[in-house]
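Q: Is it fine to ask for two folds in a single conversation?
A: Yes, each is treated on its own. Send the first.
Q: Here.
A: Result:
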Amino acid sequence: MRTYEQRLNYEKLELIPTTQSSLQDKLGLVVSGFQKAWERLVGFFELSSEPSVYHTSDASGEWWYVYEPTTGRSFWFATEAEVLEWFDTRHYRQGRLFE
């Protein structure tokens, strides 16, 4: 039977993640997941008329998601430049509405 030190040394030499570090990694992932979920939940209930912008990427590339709470509409863009252009036209449209 191995001692605790022998087992840790064996795991280190064989590049086997130790139970403690593996548990810490998993706990870190869980905490990170809860933090992201909390931020989105707070953002969902936040009473703001400002658009929300999320940047994401997947196998097909990078994407920008914009949600406009005043109208309830959402938009997908392929580039940051398109998002900025949308903001510019949105500001122009809102200005025209109130003239």
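Q: Second one now.
A: Result:
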Amino acid sequence: MHPSRSSSFVRRALPWGLAGALMLIVGAFALISQAAPASITLTELRVGIDARALPVSTGERDYTSGGFEAVYARELAQRLGAALTLVPLRNDEPWRALREGEVDVVLGRAEIDGDAEGLPVLPTGYRSGLGVSMRTDRPARGWDALRHRTLCTSSDNTRAQALAARLGARLQVHAAPAQALVRVRTGDCDAAVLDHAQLASLLAQKEWAKFAATLPPTEASALQAWLAPSRAALAAPLRAAMAELDDPLHWAQRRQTWAANVAFEVHYDQTGPDCH
């Protein structure tokens, strides 16, 4: 081919080659954008929890609740950069609320009643069995020894309530853990039955030495999150946020904060010095 004709051909072919390359690049970006999930912009996180796990208020006093549901939900919303809405649910409502899209997530213990089949479940990392706080000068020697004894617990701790029924114990249910623990200190209850992991942090305080008798914890129960089927796009950011929150140091700090708050509430509730 003549040199001048060759250079003319190159000049004509070059624009077509660039156009073809650009078309390929645009096509590739289109495929990538179709394959990649859209980023989630979350302004509100609706978390369903047992109504009894909400922070307790008598109108005059605020109390720390028995579980970590409300505390964990607040931290989770903060991690996701969303405003938190706590949705109180009855025992029979969690799964319906999830399937009907009334909440984005339900937080609760693994043994919540009902049919959770097919619902995505995510662990929080918190597990605990039940434990007790008893006087050290007259402790029970085993769980069976609590039969016919008076046990106190909080209204949200349904596992403790079920255990008391199985043991044949007399049960007092109070709105908050501090109220149950006060009854142990005043002698109205033989033992307070609450989460062992939380009690361990409380009973390690020297002010609780006289009430630090306990028993081996019962089988551990996990705090879990269930995701609404309609919110499947939230699964990845939710898992990432929960992984950041699932750290032994974080859980130790939550337990210590719970114990400090409850100890203060017990002290405040006692009308006079410990008469025992």
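Q: Anything structural to flag on that second result?
A: Two points. Confidence is low (pLDDT under 50) at residues 4-39, 272-276. Residues 125 and 247 are 8 Å apart (CA to CA).
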